[in-house]
Amino acid sequence: MSSIDWKSYTPTLIPNIKDYHKIDVYEKHGGYGALKKILKDPSAHTPESVTNAVKDSGLRGRGGAGFNTGLKWSFMPKPDGGPRYIAANGDESEPGTFKDRVIFEYNPHTFIEGSIIAAYAMSVSTVYVYIRGEYRSWIRMMEKAVSDAYEKGYLGKNILGSTFSVDMIVHSGAGAYICGEESSLMESLEGKRGYPRVKPPFPAQKGLWGRPTTINNIESLANVPLIMNKGSEWFKNIGASTHPGPLLYGISGHVNRPGVYEYPTGMLISELINDVALGVRGGKKVKAVIPGGSSTPPLRGDSLEGVRMDSDSLREAGSMLGTAGMCILDEDTDMVDFLWRVSHFYHHESCGQCTPCREGTGWLEKTLLKIKNGEGTTRDLDLLLDICGQMEGRTICALADAAAWPVRYTINRFRDEFEARVKNTVYALA
Amino acid sequence: MEKFEFTKEELAVIDEIIAKYPNPQPAVMPVLWMAQDKFGHVEPDVQKLVANTLGLPESHVHGVATFYTQYYKERKGKYVLDVCTSFSCQACGAYDTLHYIEDKLGIKAGDTTEDGMFSIQSVECLGACGYAPMMQITNDIYVNHLTKEKIDTVIEDLKKDKLPEFEPIPLVQNREIAQEK
Ligand SMILES: Cc1cc2nc3c(=O)[nH]c(=O)nc-3n(C[C@H](O)[C@H](O)[C@H](O)COP(=O)(O)O)c2cc1C
Ligand code: SF4
Ligand code: FES
Questions:
Q1: pTM, entire model
Q2: Structural domain span for residue B53
């Protein structure tokens, strides 16, 4: 039974309005109203009060880690007159994730307005929007939207006649998953290879060009105008109480109607599969669900009852919400093949700085390929788990963990399938 | 030998790019993109041009160019077909799609046809997982929901230098908001 009234839910992030991506249409429907309200009466809407409103709304980052957005903003130090930055993360490269692109195409101005409000709240002087290079068509759309926002005076000097100024610059990546990791993204923006930085110092202390910086996902920032317009209470009451708000669910894999859907957080996975995505193709059974991008541990199809798409429910079930990019795999899926392909990805994308990650991702892929080709032994399964143990928590960034988790949990949860593919190891008697 | 140069107009654009950042170094990625759009690749001589234009060491530009997969460090076909084979697409038959294209063009992923028209690459998730199988053409247009017929048409069209049209992201949640572009 669902406690969430999703059938009567009206989309707000990607509303049902034709040509909403055009600035005139956006304005006609109240767009940039939240920004106007704030800038018209800054004494009633101080940066602190805006930050608190976002904090109180319970909005948690949509980029994967699920950290409270307002709380993150409050980590920025007091302004000292020097430049401060927001890096909006539109790298969207975690396999299975395809939702920020919908914002670029259908509602860029909500994101832009949210970023301007965030910049106001954190006294930021420039917002860099980092978009993966493959999204060239959508980079063009964002550039158009940004230039329209400048033309209308929402960006630039003395916005809407106020004392607040902020610039927004769209920056294209060039094909590197690791640049979605926040410190790698900053390195990339500085014109270098995207090698993640050792933390601390954290970006709020020492970010872009050594200055205070906050990194937020595109969808996280797009929620901000909604919170300002409708209030923190409104937001808090949507979906799961500890992880509230509208959420863009990306559903892919073996379903009848894949795509990006906007619904409250905390939807039942079973409802998303059966009612939203119209069930599994060919009426087949679900073998596995990857709930939020390739790094989130797969859940068995027979363990989905009552599991919801929010961080608490998924933690209990043994996975994570991640990016809410769900992939549904049917009963015919070869889990060995699947896992080899996931491992190939992380091996390909490891930046190579840390030995456990560089070597570990290589060994994972190599060993899985061996098993896939029918040349593995039962010992290889234990070897894989052992490699995972040597990678987790031992590296500069979380890519190594992201590579290890799917291996560990796919083997644990589908061990029979892996055992069926390997030769029994004959141990010599000592 | 081919000479790589930026025109006066392009140099003016580069100055505008540099102005977006606190120093010239961050312009390296946008300018590598400009160079690749113009010359079709960023071979070492092009990297040198970018380095000289921005006043950066060649070694730095080389480091950046080689870190990011979308920069072509060697010449590719006129049209590069990037087929996503990451797991969502894999689940939806991406390898069959890839093999169909390979057979059709008579080359393997990673190679270029002899006439220099096509390269094929097997690439990681392109952020279009719900519209699998899919591919991207030369770092630009996305083509979703590939079928054999659709691939045939796209390739025939490309041979005549006709690029597929932009496909808006399909919104499936009871939406009637198709938009003008
Ligand atoms: C390897 C790796 C890749 C990541 N890729 C992305 C990404 O593509 N997009 C994104 O928003 N966050 C990504 N993240 C998370 C970011 O580091 C960061 O937590 C996030 O952008 C913060 O925004 P949020 O708090 O609004 O979610 C990635 C993290 C890691 C470790
Ligand atoms: S964990 Fe992997 S990707 Fe992250 S910094 Fe180390 S080597 Fe690079
Ligand atoms: S897995 Fe192919 S586009 Fe995401």
A1: 0.97
A2: 8-67
